[in-house]
Amino acid sequence: MIKVVKIGGRILDDEARLAAFCRDFAALPGEKVLVHGGSVLANRVQEALGAEPRKIEGRRVTDEAALQVVTMVYAGWYNKHLTALLQKESCNAVGLAGCDGACITARRRPPMTLSDGSTVVDYGFVGDVTPASVDVGFIRGLLGAGYTPVFSAINHDGAGNLLNTNADTVASCIAAALGASLVICFEKDGVLSDPADPGSVIPLIRESDCAALKASGTVSEGMLPKLDTAFAALRSGAAGAVIKNAGALCSAGGTELCL
Fold first, then answer.
1. Is 171 exposed, middle or buried (0-12, 13-18, 19+ CB in 10 A)?
2. I need a labelling partner for 67 at 20 to 30 A (CA). Which of 127, 196, 205, 228 fits?
3. How far apart are alpha carbons 38 and 151 in whole angstroms?
4. In whole angstroms, what separates CA 133 from the centre of its chain?
């Protein structure tokens, strides 16, 4: 079965842990796809340029200046750095953005009403994708030729515009389109019942549990899009979903998600 692995969080800024992750990813048997984020460095670059990063409900507000930064960071440095690290491990990786081969097309997000039911936010140059946005034939063609696709979260609208997309969403849509297993990796061991206790991993979360977890504050900020997109992937055809520590990619554990 194809595996779609998303790597993000602070792992991307820890060279030793990132190198170990790439070794483990390269060792995964079978066909696989890697999707990556990069928000920590993007935040630092924005701040160095005198801009304040803005995230609302875990998603980045992207004006034109922010779009230039995230494109440089995501589709530039991180995408090529990961590709080079995987090549070192004899994994024949190909770095991609959605505009390459028109493999993922996004639709610019219209102003949205937040979960409070009243606040409306324009996220700017942010794109939304669905499983239907993914060119499955293109990805299967690369996999069949022995390549491992490495996707940044920069996509396009088909009209000459780049759009910033949440990396968890990109991973979930690729997994759903391919009928693949989705693995979301970051620096923690899974979804924690107590954010202050790294050992408080919730081993299984059903979609019906989510409302209570959000209401209690157990799930908030960056974990919100992880859960939302993983459940969306399962509803749309993904074969499975788990959130886990990047250092445990090749072992059991983490938080399994099911409908």
1. buried
2. 228
3. 12
4. 16
Across the chain, which distance is largest between two alpha carbons, in Å?
51
**Residues 170, 155: contact at Cβ < 8 Å?**
yes
Q: Please classify residue 10 by burial: count the beta carbons closer than 10 Å to its beta carbon, then call 0-12 exposed, 13-18 middle and 19+ buried.
A: middle
pLDDT in the model for residue 41: 93
Tell me the DSSP string of 151-200.
E-SEEE-SSS-EEE--HHHHHHHHHHHHTPEEEEEESSSS-BSSTT-TT-
Instruction: End-to-end CA distance of the chain: give it in Å, rounded.
Output: 20
Count of residues in the chain: 259
Tokens matching residue 170: 């990109």
At residue 183, φ and ψ (nearest 5 deg) are: -125, 115
CB burial class (10 A; 0-12, 13-18, 19+) of residue 75?
buried
Rounded percentage of the chain residues whose pLDDT exceeds 90: 77
Q: Tell me: the pLDDT tens digits for 119-134?
A: 898 999 999 999 999 9
Instruction: For residue 146, give both structure tokens.
Output: 């022995």
Amino acid (1-letter code) at residue 235: R
The 10s digit of each residue's pLDDT in 241-250 is: 999 999 999 9
Of 170, 148, 184, nearest to 104 by C-alpha is: 170
* Strands 154-156, 162-164: pairing kind: antiparallel
